[in-house]
Design brief:
flat; nine-stranded antiparallel beta sheet; 60s Ribosomal Protein L30, Chain: A; disordered C terminus
Length: 430
């Protein structure tokens, strides 16, 4: 009889050990800020936890010894806040964790289970039981267990549950739990159960003796002379750039330009600027908008080596409106609220510039233009919220009308700067 009992115990122990060896469990827990459900990688515990679970998932996928048998995704919230709100919050937190994990590895839907805990009373009870520093711990645990029973039954007595907790001992236990324990409840947890997949039985193949096969040899062909042509597909060269004048940017005038290479060392460049800054308190204005169009001719060894690089000459046409007034006399060109052509100043001239390569896709373009700018403008003085006209004048300016130090972003197939090389060896390695 004793021998049978010993054998049974040994068999039971062996079976338990075998079952444990056949199953592997894994889990990951992430935390959330108050009332939020987005993934906050600024929390150090989140980054470490997600990095670890993804590493283990990848390793087990490669191993193919274990298969996922069950997945449970939990979302929870701390007690503060409404019942419906916390339920939706816990659901969103669970979905956040699941969506992140499933974005990197496939999780089978057939073994998936979601649990939206809402107010996690059970979790809070566990934390209070583990923390001897909770003020009035016994009274707090008694109330928490009562609140959990009410929540499980779907009934609320003596007012809201959180209000009861706040009234306990004038809120001393609640304030402690809010600071030290509630952050642990704002979480989502994913649990995985793996089951060991038995190795397939390997049946040795039956080897049969080879059957001789006789192949008729083809007739010898006469030798052919020539070469084999390998077709290569290359993109068609295309050259353009997007640029911004950093001098205008420094003067708080946002601007952008686009340039297209036309071929035969010619390009066309169009620029637009727009700024409308004001302060109604002191009638301060810094208003300007307008643009220019320029036809450029590129020359020199650099321009012949690669378009939109090196020296260039140009002819341009420009138009601009402005309103400058800083608490005193103001100067306005262009009709407020009108089109660009309503009383705008216009001009044009000739330019010289040089586009300097600074990176693979970046140049800095230096340019100066000399020509004419003219048109009608108005002098006025602000007075009690009104602009009192003083005089109408005409401007005729001959001299520099264009100045630029532009950051240029090269776009297009083959439109990039090659590195300069000093010898043939470097050229071959490029």
């Amino acid at each position: 009889m004793k021998r049978h009992i010993v054998i049974a115990l040994l068999l039971g122990t062996t079976a338990a050990s075998y079952a444990q060896a056949q199953e592997v469990r894994d889990s990951v827990k992430i935390y959330f800020p108050v009332a939020k459900h987005y993934l906050d990688m600024g929390i150090p515990a989140n980054e470490r936890a997600l990095s670890g679970i993804m590493s283990r998932l990848t390793e087990r996928e490669r191993d193919s010894v274990y298969a996922i048998r069950k997945i449970v995704v939990e979302g929870a919230a701390s007690p503060e806040g409404g019942i419906k709100y916390n339920y939706n919050l816990s659901r969103n937190r669970a979905n956040t964790l699941f969506n992140y994990i499933s974005g990197y590895t496939e999780l089978p839907d057939s073994v998936m289970e979601f649990r939206f805990l809402g107010r996690d009373w059970a979790g809070l009870i566990r934390l209070v039981e583990e923390d001897p520093a909770v003020p009035y711990r016994d009274e707090t645990l008694a109330l928490l267990r009562k609140l959990q029973r009410e929540a499980d039954l779907g009934i609320l007595t003596n007012g809201d549950q959180v209000a009861q907790l706040r009234r306990l001992r004038k809120g001393v236990p609640y304030r402690y739990m809010y600071r030290n324990l509630f952050p642990e409840l704002r979480q989502s947890n994913l649990l995985l159960w793996y089951e060991r997949v038995p190795a397939p039985e390997i049946v040795p193949p039956v080897i049969e003796p080879p059957v001789p096969v006789y192949v008729e040899e083809p007739e010898e062909e006469s030798p052919r002379f020539g070469c084999t042509t390998v077709e290569t597909i290359e993109c068609k060269p295309f050259y353009m750039d997007i640029n911004t004048n950093m001098l205008y940017d420094a003067a708080a005038i946002p601007n952008i330009g686009v340039e297209f290479y036309l071929g035969k060392n010619l390009s066309i460049d169009a620029n637009w600027m727009y700024a409308w800054w004001n302060s109604n308190r002191r009638h301060r204005y810094w208003r300007t908008y307008g643009g220019d169009v320029e036809l450029r001719w590129w020359f020199g060894s650099e321009a012949h080596a690669k378009p939109l690089t090196g020296h260039h000459l140009g002819v341009y046409f420009q138009t601009v409106t402005y309103d400058f007034e800083f608490g005193g006399k103001g100067y306005m060109a262009g009709k407020p609220g009108g089109t660009l052509w309503d009383r705008a100043n216009i001009g044009g001239g000739f330019s010289y510039g040089y586009s300097l390569p600074v990176a693979r896709r970046l140049n800095i373009d230096f340019e100066i233009g000399v020509g004419y700018m003219g048109g009608r403008y108005y002098e006025y003085v602000p007075d009690n919220g009104c602009y009192v006209w003083q005089a109408t004048k005409h401007m005729h300016w001959f001299g520099p009308t264009k100045l630029g130090v532009s950051l240029v972003w090269l776009i297009g197939c083959d439109n990039y700067n090659r590195k300069k090389v000093n010898n043939e060896k470097d050229s071959i390695g490029e």
